[in-house]
Amino acid sequence: xxxxxxxxxxxxxxxxxxxxxxxxxxxxxxxxxxxxxxxxxxxxxxxxxxxxxxxxxxxxxxxxxxxxxxxxxxxxxxxxxxxxxxxxx
Length: 89
Description:
Blueprint: H1 13-37, H2 52-82
Helix pairs in contact: 1-2
């Protein structure tokens, strides 16, 4: 049985979504660091040295994707902040 004076814990959908998007924005640099460290795990086949062109292309593509994700998250978070809450009216 629930005590009569206790209200259930509930977050509005917009607040919950905004908090999760903020969490995603905070985790983005860690994701980028992990993705940039992946080429260190690649090994050359045989005795021939590995070409750096593929590694540099991978790092550049990851960099561009991180910029794109950060821009999208920033835009969505900015739009959520600009919307007035129904509860404040």
